[in-house]
């Protein structure tokens, strides 16, 4: 069974599409990962490898994913397996195309299920912190160690931890169950403006807060410190690798096929190039302008140059800044700090939720489109899958292991770092090499408001971008596997290994059956 789907939903408005795609890209990493990476790899100088990677890796793969998604939507497909199949069979035999597509789809399924499992937990943490700040709970925190104890107490209290997670996951599931127009698009139109308003308010607070702890520790000095170019850092290859990695993560490239999924709801003649660049620009504004103007200046106002020296050395992560340095600062500011803390953590909640909606929608689309399960039920099947992928984050806290986040850290390294690069590489091979430069280029420009140079598509998207991906993969395998995050430290780390394998097998089974139902007569 193949062909087009006339009843499939489309985005109701262009602004809804742009905001949903931007919400998909703008996540926690924009506000907590980017500032820490910039601080560690040269401040203002970090923008050189960062924007180089944006041009050579981020934008071309964005074009690839949008093009693949809209073309797949023409045939009624909203997830990667059938999309990969219909383009790769142009040069491969149906059997080889099916094998390629099913394995690629299974890898995407692992990234989607595992990332959503732990990511929604972190979203729950942000909601708890937002409520805690508003209630004045941070006012008793004097130092970073107090804030670390606050986090540990939360993680080891299953009543708070599980509740915060499930409330956020339920909200996400309900939104997805309502469909693209009545759920995802409406949520984006509400949440994204709130996110940007909160971000702008926090930038103003951050840059006008002065020196609440010591006269010589002003937030403006922190801002200046961050953007002072330290060109010597560019002598370290890690600066270019990390710049490329940040672009990869911030644009949500390769993550479970969420960009192709959203692009599949485009109409046949809807623009791709300008729309993709618009969403990229919104993401970059949120990251480079807002993200860099909040966490580091506030952290400097609390901990001064000593704290930022730890960030520069990589000893304090962006997440560590958010939960250890900023809560005591908010606590010191009294009522204003309560509100500022609420704005900060609710901003992170909105950023996380808009990304997680896209993740859950991908899984839901598999059941809705290929197994003829109504969307409302498909969303709750997705809920169950995500629940089993994420519940061990809660259980590890409840068992009070020494690490508390071994399951999360290992799942994040393999699903949230390595495998998504594999997915993106598969997409590039499918579109540029198997579908072909000319045909895919023509599809990219159907209904386009601007023209992408043919050489950029052929040589950058088809050559430089996959080479960049291979270098990234090798780098993360060689250096990353030596880190604690890549190795199980306790039974929950081994459970994460087992869950990665289980989700891959489940992905193979689901995607095999999904593809067989649509195109089985061609390859069996």
Q: What would your notes on this structure say?
A:
This protein is mostly helical and 524 residues long. The protein has one domain (14-523): Amino acid/polyamine transporter I, CATH 1.20.1740. The chain has 20 helices and no strands. Residues 1-6 have low confidence and may be disordered.
Number of helical stretches of at least 4 residues: 20
What structural class do you assign from the helix and strand content?
Answer: mainly alpha
Strand tally: 0
| Percent of residues in helices | over 70%
Mean pLDDT: 94
Overall structural domain count? 1
Using the alpha-carbon principal axes, give the shape: globular
CATH class, anyone?
Answer: Mainly Alpha
| Proper CATH architecture | Up-down Bundle
Low-confidence stretches: 1-6
| Biggest sheet features | none
Evaluate the radius of gyration.
22 Å
Strand content: under 5%
- Along the chain, the helix and strand elements come as HHHHHHHHHHHHHHHHHHHH
Cα-to-Cα separation, first versus last residue = 13 Å
What name is given to the CATH topology? Amino acid/polyamine transporter I
Short description:
Helix content is 77%, strand content 0%. The protein has 524 residues and is an all-alpha fold.
Which keywords apply here?
Amino acid/polyamine transporter I, single chain, mainly alpha, 524 residues, 0% strand, 77% helix
What is the element layout, followed by pairings?
Elements: H1 14-25, H2 28-40, H3 47-74, H4 80-88, H5 94-134, H6 144-155, H7 158-177, H8 179-208, H9 219-227, H10 237-250, H11 258-263, H12 273-290, H13 295-312, H14 318-332, H15 334-370, H16 375-398, H17 406-435, H18 437-444, H19 454-480, H20 491-523
Helix pairs in contact: 1-8, 1-12, 1-15, 2-10, 2-12, 2-13, 2-14, 3-4, 3-10, 3-12, 3-17, 3-19, 4-5, 5-7, 5-15, 5-16, 5-17, 5-20, 6-14, 7-8, 7-15, 7-16, 8-15, 9-13, 13-14, 14-15, 15-16, 16-20, 17-19, 17-20
């Amino acid at each position: 069974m193949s062909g087009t789907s006339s009843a499939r939903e489309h985005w109701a408005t262009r602004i809804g599409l742009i905001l949903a795609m931007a919400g998909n890209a703008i996540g926690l990493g924009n506000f907590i990962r980017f500032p820490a990476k910039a601080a560690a790899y040269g401040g203002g100088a970090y923008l050189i490898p960062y924007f180089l990677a944006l041009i050579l890796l981020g934008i071309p793969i964005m074009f690839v994913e949008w093009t693949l998604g809209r073309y797949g939507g023409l045939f009624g497909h909203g997830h990667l397996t059938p999309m990969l199949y219909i383009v790769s069979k142009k040069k491969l035999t149906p059997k080889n195309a099916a094998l390629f597509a099913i394995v690629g789809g299974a890898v995407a399924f692992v990234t989607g299920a595992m990332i959503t499992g732990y990511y929604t937990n972190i979203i729950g943490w942000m909601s708890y912190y937002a409520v805690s700040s508003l209630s004045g709970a941070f006012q008793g925190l004097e130092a970073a160690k107090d804030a670390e104890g606050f986090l540990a107490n939360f993680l080891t209290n299953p009543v708070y931890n599980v509740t915060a997670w499930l409330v956020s996951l339920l909200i996400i599931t309900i939104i997805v169950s309502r469909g693209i127009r009545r759920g995802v698009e409406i949520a984006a139109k509400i949440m994204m403006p709130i996110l940007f308003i909160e971000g702008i308010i926090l930038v103003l607070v951050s840059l006008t807060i002065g020196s609440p702890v010591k006269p010589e520790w002003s937030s403006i000095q922190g801002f200046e410190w961050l953007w002072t170019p330290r060109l010597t850092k560019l002598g370290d290859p890690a600066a270019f690798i990390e710049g490329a990695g940040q672009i990869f993560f911030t644009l949500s490239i390769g993550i479970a096929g969420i960009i192709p999924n959203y692009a599949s709801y485009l109409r046949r003649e809807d623009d791709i190039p300008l729309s993709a660049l618009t969403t990229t620009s919104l993401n970059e504004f949120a990251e480079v302008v807002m993200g860099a103007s909040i966490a580091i200046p506030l952290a400097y106002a609390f901990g001064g140059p000593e704290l930022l020296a730890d960030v520069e050395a990589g000893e304090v992560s962006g997440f560590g800044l958010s939960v250890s340095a900023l809560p005591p600062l908010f606590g010191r500011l009294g009522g204003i700090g309560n509100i500022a803390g609420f704005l900060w953590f609710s901003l992170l909640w909105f950023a996380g939720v808009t990304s997680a909606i896209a993740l859950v929608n991908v899984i839901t689309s598999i059941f809705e489109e290929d197994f003829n399960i109504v969307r409302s039920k498909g969303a709750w099947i997705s809920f169950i899958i995500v629940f089993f992928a994420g519940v061990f984050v809660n259980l590890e806290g409840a068992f009070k292991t020494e690490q508390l986040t071994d399951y999360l850290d290992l799942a994040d390294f393999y699903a949230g770092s390595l495998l998504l690069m594999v997915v993106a590489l598969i997409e590039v091979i499918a579109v540029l090499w198997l579908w072909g430069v000319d045909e895919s280029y023509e599809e990219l420009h159907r209904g386009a408001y601007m023209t992408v140079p043919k050489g950029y598509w052929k040589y950058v998207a088809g050559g430089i971008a996959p080479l960049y991906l291979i270098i990234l993969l090798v780098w993360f395998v060689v250096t990353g596997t030596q880190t604690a995050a890549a190795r199980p430290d306790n039974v929950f780390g081994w459970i994460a290994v087992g869950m990665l394998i289980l989700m891959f097998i489940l992905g193979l089974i689901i995607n095999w059956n999904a593809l067989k139902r649509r195109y089985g007569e061609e390859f069996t």
